[in-house]
Amino acid sequence: MRTRLEDNFRPADRKNLAQRGVHSVTDLFRFFPRRYLVPGEHTELGDLPLGETAIIQAEVIKVDTRRMKQRKGTITEVIVHDGTQSMKIAFFNQHWLGKALKPGLTVVFGGKVESFRGQLTLASPVWLNRTEDDHEWTPEDLNSPFPIYPAVKKIAQSRLWSSIKTLLTVAGPEEFEDPLPKGLRDAHELPDLRTALEDMHRPRTIEDVERARLRWKWEEALALQTEFAARKAKLADEKATPLLTQGAKSRRFDADLPFTLTASQVRVGEEISEDMAADRPMHRLLHGDVGSGKTLVALRAMLTAVDSGAQAAMLAPTEVLATQHFHSIQTFLDEQMALSPLLSDDDQVTVALMTGSMPAKERRELALDLVAGNIDIVVGTHALLSESTMFSDLGLIVVDEQHRFGVEQREALRAKGGDTTPHTLVMSATPIPRTVAMTVFADLDISTLKEMPAGPKDIATHVVPIVDQPAWYVRVRQLMRQTAEAGKGVFVVFPRIEPTDIEDPESGDVVGQKQGIEDISRKLSETPELAGLTFGLLHGRMSTAEKDRVLADFVGGDIDILVSTTVIEVGVDVARATMMVIIEAENFGVAQLHQLRGRVGRDGSSALCFLLTEMSAEDESYGRLQAVADTLDGFALAEYDLDSRGEGDVLSGSQWGGSSLRHLSILRDSEIVAEAKTIAEQIVAVDPTLEAVPALKAFIRRVLPEDDAHFIEAG
Ligand code: ADP
Ligand code: MG
């Protein structure tokens, strides 16, 4: 019995199969047709209806290849006969067919019925040499969907197909061990593995294929959710130090907050304190729209840790962000916990910032303070992860913008907890659609900040097509002037610093130049509408001191219009800015545009945002801009983004990127994913190491990469 790949394919073929990811019989069975030709009812040559797809079986009578007169290339004409009638079929530029289709062979052809010079023919049909196939073609076969496989170099479809069919009949039972439990299959009327494989490779009806496809989705959903459930169970076995809720410092902090917490902040705060009070580590994701108050939630959690005598560390992806967090935490604490003569030193909260650019000596001192327990809260970049950074008692880790860190990095920090595992809170700067949260982050518990502290923001957003509507651009500049004259600040956001060449996509020749940020700033300042106003420039190539000075001038009102790159995306808080003009807006992603405009109207006053573009309403990216203009709901935009970019994109950098999950769609299959989660949790609850379900275990290893870094591109 020829049950191995080696028995069916020569080494050269196996190399070509390997290029398509086929290394074993199991892989080959899961090498599914790309599509199917679904034949109509007629299979007699005499009675083929024009325009329909037909599958016919006929004998090759004559094959003739010649060069074409009018065009370059060859034409191969094949005359076939089915016992009563004949037909001429033409193939273009496939001269090798002369060798494959020999007179006398019985061949199955599938394709669309067309009329050519008054005679019926099939247009460039797919074909299969029946004589080479050990499978007898019955009239029923000719009415069955005809699979078309992805091309494999140097392996004819017919040979591939017949090998798969042969192997399906001779392969041993180990090839058909089903990763889906029988109870699940029965409940959802899913075919077992063998039936589903047969249905993919030799379906009787297209419904067979649909039914099998549903099964592949279930397999993947169950694999994913079981893996997550198993990881969660493993985490649950780790020991953590319970962190007391609401000690003196937390109480004092909350007591005179200048505002009331939103209902979401209260609820999420409770979710977090409940987790931290347990003796197993918290593993929670906090997400919410820009400005929903995540930082405050994180700070309250850190104070809970401090109250319990533990330290808290906050990890940020960039120095700018870390610095920003450090300052806002410090400001919050200064205001809330101002030194009172009645408080002893013990009642103070010490906060420190650790970054890579710190002088070595300072960093060494800070490291000593950390290990001595003199620091309660440390905010930092990757510097926190280095081996020289140690803690006296690390109780809580907050990871900001979690998608920018890999699991190894988070693990490095978690390992600094000593005997116990610190509690972990990861934050996402932008909202994550429910479907994504449920799949990509299924091993985390999820907290969502739903409402905005200041109520829904009022940022009227408009798309301005500057080529189609030049007058609107003039109007925008007039509004900029009015805003500046009213003492408010205007942001102009521009996508690049330096001018860049525009290359012709065909020739690669430089055909023009896109302006840099200085050009755009100068040009704007020279327009009649903006003449006489003060412009400032802000971008990432300026020194920190320069940036600080420019920002201070903008905050103080000495600069009317600040032309900036996306450095303002993170953390810049200028209460007097009420207008933003984003130039070449099509260069930014949906989430990023939403983040950017969150920088205006910070003081609660109504604000304006204009998305300038050279695109027209018909262009695809115009639709994205319109979507941003249409809603201020970051959750709705996140869903839109997922929908329009497609999950391939969204997940390209995620755990799924490295996986071979091919059938499950996180957009469309959320119900399957949700049900699979319940079942997976039941499986893991009784059998955490999956001993009783070896086929499922093997399938998980097959489709999910071992490295479990889960990233998600947020913008
Ligand atoms: P996020 O990190 O979610 O984008 P922040 O935590 O930076 O949001 O909060 C945005 C602003 O709202 C900050 O200035 C913060 O002090 C303020 N803020 C947070 N919570 C509240 C609240 N409950 N009421 C009023 N203002 C709040
Ligand atoms: Mg924040």
Automatic annotation (TrEMBL):
It comes from the Bacteria. This is ATP-dependent DNA helicase RecG. Keywords: ATP-binding, DNA damage, DNA repair, DNA-binding, Helicase, Hydrolase, Nucleotide-binding. Residues 475-643 form the Helicase C-terminal domain. Its EC number is 3.6.4.12. It is an enzyme of class 3 (hydrolase). It holds the Pfam family Helicase_C. The keyword RNA-binding does not apply. Residues 275-449 form the Helicase ATP-binding domain. GO terms for molecular function: ATP binding; DNA binding; DNA helicase activity; hydrolase activity. InterPro entries: DEAD/DEAH_box_helicase_dom, Helicase_ATP-bd, Helicase_C-like, NA-bd_OB-fold, P-loop_NTPase, RecG/Mfd, RecG_wedge. GO terms for biological process: DNA repair. SMART domains: DEXDc (SM00487), HELICc (SM00490). CDD domains: DEXHc_RecG, RecG_wedge_OBF. Coiled coil: none annotated.
